[in-house]
Amino acid sequence: MTTLNSDLEQAFRSHLKKISSYEQAISLLNWDSRTGAPKKGMDERADVSGTMATELFKIKTSDETAKYLHAVLGHQGTDVSATSKQAAAELKKEYDRMTKIPEDEFQEYSILTAKSENVWEEAKEADDFAMFAPYLEKIVDFSRRFAEHWGYESHPYNALLEDYEPGMTVEKLDAIFAKVREGLIPLVEGVTSSDKKPETDFLFSTFPKDKQRAFSLDVLKQMTYDFEAGRLDETVHPFAIGLNPNDVRVTTKYDESDFRTAVFGTIHEGGHALYEQNIGEELAGTILSDGASMGIHESQSLFWENFVGRHPKFWEKNYELLQTYAPDQFTGVSLHDFYRAINEAKPSLIRIEADELTYCLHIILRYEMEKQLIEGSLKVKDLPRVWNEKMQEYLGVIPPSNAKGVLQDVHWAFGAFGYFPSYALGYIYAAQLKAAMDKDLPAFDELVEKGDLKPIREWMTKNIHQYGRSRTPIELIKEATGEDINPDYLLQYLSEKYKDLYQFS
Amino acid sequence: MTTLNSDLEQAFRSHLKKISSYEQAISLLNWDSRTGAPKKGMDERADVSGTMATELFKIKTSDETAKYLHAVLGHQGTDVSATSKQAAAELKKEYDRMTKIPEDEFQEYSILTAKSENVWEEAKEADDFAMFAPYLEKIVDFSRRFAEHWGYESHPYNALLEDYEPGMTVEKLDAIFAKVREGLIPLVEGVTSSDKKPETDFLFSTFPKDKQRAFSLDVLKQMTYDFEAGRLDETVHPFAIGLNPNDVRVTTKYDESDFRTAVFGTIHEGGHALYEQNIGEELAGTILSDGASMGIHESQSLFWENFVGRHPKFWEKNYELLQTYAPDQFTGVSLHDFYRAINEAKPSLIRIEADELTYCLHIILRYEMEKQLIEGSLKVKDLPRVWNEKMQEYLGVIPPSNAKGVLQDVHWAFGAFGYFPSYALGYIYAAQLKAAMDKDLPAFDELVEKGDLKPIREWMTKNIHQYGRSRTPIELIKEATGEDINPDYLLQYLSEKYKDLYQFS
Q: Which keywords, in A-to-Z order, does the entry hold (chains A, B) (predicted)?
């Protein structure tokens, strides 16, 4: 534990603890609503969550917070710790963002996004983009105005990015994503035109839910997920949630006709959970006890899902175990055929169902449209057309409906502009971290084959987890890999893997 | 829904909603801690719950609350509803109680009781009353001082009773409990000296946990517990908890070598839950959406546990169903033998394991000691001796240790003086309500035999549940049964039942 040097520091830490308590209560309400809370209680639950969020907002933007920020950040001398100063700096960022939006504007926006989520749902159901368009137009307007309130250099989208991936800019993303896009398109074409496609029929036999759960628990244990500081529950839309490093919960979804949903979903959320379980203790109770960014968080889930969970050696270890839970399903299916099946790649319409190879293209096309919406060079009404054109250009598929195209995701309906790039950045970070890890752990393949995943997790803890939000994404990646963000590792990995799997060159 | 007549009323209702939101968040934290929250997160959880409780305390005792109470209670005219006025009156009681204790005294007391719970646990473990005595002495002193702060008529214990059973007094309790004690002692002697004791060996076969759960769910369904507004979970110390009428959760405990724990525990907690699920909608979000008192709450759980769950007709309906879950356990055991076994009565040491017949004596002996501690006529150091003397006098058993005697319960360690009487009052109310119900529902036995428990639950909803905390216990009982609290119904019920079961006169 950190020694708290002064009365000021102690008082500030108490204030941070209060903020953390509200955040933990909100997280628990959220977890409960999304796992097993009684259906009929959901209306009142929304009120309770709303009240708690409002109270937290009030505390974060209070005069008391301002007073602490002023005192801690202005403090000269050594009797306030570096951690407290950093926590103050992070809280200051939130304070500034929250207080720069005029109250009536924020309220109007909150009402709008609450409504627009329902409208989006109906519009998707009815495949009616025009129904959603007026709401989306207003949300885009608000986002543009918020960017002006917050301020930015060179491009308004940069102001929005700051919420999800601090330090990331349109200039950097344009360069990175262009490279990824150009690298991926020929690979996707290679896979599409290959005549060496895997057999996948055997994936879809009935795999009982309780057996899937048992296997999921086995895999989480191998990953060194700490069950004394967590638990596994069922949900419709899987997520991991950390109340504090000693209480980090994983949820998963069981599809009895496709065991991959639960298995890879659990590994993915388990990756998020390992991050939160291993944030340094000295950050506990401060705003720094959190992930560094959306992209860094996603790098952890994707690392475990793809670089461990889809690794051939992982299944040398686990294929037999899987078969003990579904003895008949894999009769006559060799390990190699199994491995090829679970690594199948093919262009598809829905982002969340996309495979490892095509996923980034789904993200990039959204990024391009988001950026243009925010800069004003694309109108909401043109979205469906542009969406479909890009889908054809990047993935070679055309959505048969807007429900399966531009309306598929809820993010825009709650105003999350600037969020999507993190998903692709996570892939890029994950591959780059894997390449750096290989230098320190040349026996990576052996460790995975033995199921000895602890050294792998420890490498991540040493280089990423422990720092929580006390370092920026840029610092973390630079320190861990020796260079700035570099998409070459991802492209190289995917190129080797898929040329081999689909035998093209 | 109530129409809110005025700006004042609307603002006051919002304030009550805020209070309710905190209470619901605290309830969820509590439910989670006691069901499946990760072990390692418990320290931080205590901080979070503590913060939320402190914040709620601040709101309830705030100038804002005072302002609303003054405005609503002082309001003349019809544009503030009766419900709001009543809610204000109830909140005023809490406000007065909370603000009458000087802040430093309350803080000292909070620290003391937090510590003393741990000391009590160690003392019980070590069977060392002297270790706990100094803490208990201080807690008694505080309780006496609180009684002075709060004010009372005739006896300081009356001030403490007000927290749990408003309107109840030492004068009434002395008369009621003397009657119960004198009525029960000969019945207990009759049972003890009877040579017609039931066989009970077959109760203790292994009954798998998942089968107990399945049966518990069946029984809750029969009771008309609404699973869309609730759920059943496992815990160490069973409880029911209502966040709001649309989210009321039951917990139970499974002992594989004694299925009665889960079955009767679930029915008991289910009784509490039915109460909370059926509180009138117009009270939702106000302080009145709660049980009327501890005793009234307990009357509901005990009514379902004993007057329904231990009724011979209940098992005519359910014995076969029970056997489908444990086919071998009851081979050759007739329904009558089964019924006698689950209604076994014998004096025992531990209150929470006591049967229907002897339970009230456990409560009465505590009440007598509590009252004397508070009035100053009994010293803490004499408790073990007096405890054992009374156990021998009332139940004919002498605790072999203080751990199994005076140290058995945690209540005193957290200062809950005035709480115990509610447990016995619950029995008395339950029997009295049952007698009144028989007049309206002469077909009670038939309904139970058919498993048609809805009319029974509806009678309770009509007479008790719907009113929540908008009526006092005294009003509820008077209105529902036509008379004041009367222990004769309980004595008559127990006398008939146990003379028949144990064949004495």
A: Carboxypeptidase, Hydrolase, Metal-binding, Metalloprotease, Protease, Zinc
